[in-house]
Amino acid sequence: MGTRPDTGTNRLKITVGQNLFRPPDVMLKDAVALTITFRLFLALLVVGILLLCLDPGCAKVNHETLLRLASTNSGWKEILRLKGCKKMVAASVLAAAAIPLVMEAILHMQNLPVLVMLLPFAWSVDRAILLVSGSLPRGSQQKTLYQISAVVITSITILYDDYRITVPGIALGVSGLISTGVSKALFSLACEETRVSQGLSLFNNVHHGFIILTAVFGLIITGTLSHRIESANGSFIPSLFEVHSTLLVFYISSTTAITLSRGSLLPLTSTTSTKIFPRFEDEAVPASDIFALNISFVLILWLSMFLGSATYVSFIQFLAYWATLFALFVFSRNNFSFQFRSSVYATGWRKEASMSEDLGMTTTEASHRTTKRMLLRNFCLTSAPILAWLLVSTVITARHTTQSEISAHLDRNFVAESRFDIVVSMYDEDATSVRQMLSSIKATKFLSTLQPRVVLYTKNPASDLMELQVATGADVVERLDNVGRETGTYLHHITQHWDHLANQTIFIQAHAHNQRELIPRLDNFLVSNTGMLSLGFSGVSCDCEGCSDRWGWEDEWGLIPKLYKKLHDTNKCSEPVLLSYKGQFVASASRIRGVPLDIYEGLHDAITSSSGWSHDPNVVGDNMDEPDAPYFGYTYGICSCNVRTRESQPCVRVYWVNGGGLGELRIVSA
After folding, report:
1. Where are the domains of the chain?
2. 3-class secondary structure, 530
3. What is the DSSP string of 393-427?
4. Other Cβ atoms closer than 10 A to 611
5. In DSSP terms, which residues pair with 19 in a beta bridge?
């Protein structure tokens, strides 16, 4: 069914057209996260060793062969002699574990820029550990505490306002960032124990060794797990030799950032520079670090405008991210430290200081004047790309339309007898819990203004219909044969009440999935003109021809292209298909009746029959295929939609969102 999203929304949003780093689900099926990360660690190991060859700061480097380098470079020997060797190894192991976690988060999060905006959280974990351990100078502890608090609060705000966040995305992303922060802190403590302040050369050796140890441990961890887990479906070995543009860009950008930068706000880089070298008296966040982090965020957003899938960043998320950067500036000490890697700024500072002396200014006045100028300069440098991004994204968003190539099929002439129905598919679930679920649904914001009718279908032959009606509070209770799963129940209701459908209907199981998160979804996003609202996790799509998902399901019957071509009267299946899960959703009568009745009847017959094409043994194979649990019954709830509408579908973990976010969530009938 062609769709378009509602345009009547009060939600302030910044729409960034496309997302580069979210690979399509088809690719994820073949190149899964552990295998991808294994290849990343290979690249990291090679780049790390090459940098050892080229780094003039490393002592006793033998440039003849990589093999001799690994055995003769003093960095390896120094690491083995370090007092903090155990902390160094632990830091490498945690860093090696963090990268696969972050990779999994990338594959599960709909909006990669949100994950980038959370990078300062890893820094806050690092600083919290250093603060508790007493490793930070006493004079900077209070300001560091303010910085940590600001980062944590803004990170929570960014996550809270992301209406497409997923539970795996939160769990894996936050776990990866915490592991990164702990790793960075352990590395700092190890450097402190080994007195790396003896020289920059020793620090470079230790840092290179840390990167290479991380790559080695990462290869062991991901290689073992990917071979055991991902080689079961034959994807491990082939994926090692596949080259995909998305992965190639990811490898190049991530390995370059990890190995070449030492910015304290970037993952897998040290935060010890200001502490290691005594000429830096404070623990201020380097302005160059903030600038580098901001540039990485903006670059990803720019790339997202042209490649991949749709990305949405709310105005509140953007403000929270900017507040993070601003807090890191404000709560730093007056003289921002630029560390040994920012010679340009240091030269500029000395030049300004010399000019101040010529003007007869005191040291304090010159320092204050220089600090204000440098703050203004860095503020302008940091804000300029963001303002440019806002301008470009606004133009691109204005040029994009969300109208489907094929118009929606709606029955605009149908007049419903009932305003709202709740159709429940039940077997032997507890009647009291069903009643409580229905009460919670009826109490949601929109439904509390109506009197929805509850139609309950039970497939339990032993149930007493009158007792069940009283116990659940349903208006209508009907018994069906125990065939076809909940899909058969929904299709029965549609086909048997074709001319008596409610204006809108919730189709739901007696034991709803994720009820704790489903109720806020209905409360915040269900409105009077909702045409289709998925109540399961969504945003997963596939090609119309040869549809499949990352969990192993495939359209082995070729049903989707057949239905698509019949529905749209076309010979090609051009648009992506949205996959809806969990068997719970809201649909309007006009949208349901936009599909011919004979299609629903054919599907109902196929799913409730005991023979026929839906039970083809060549397709079913060894899978369970019983009347009450037909193999074909797991294929349902699929509709085609515009690409950008499909990508803006939220996940089930949605709470209050400013302004409701209605335009980005529901598919409306218009």
Report:
1. 13-399, 420-640
2. strand
3. HHHHHHH-----SS-----TT---SSSEEEEEEES
4. 7
5. 309
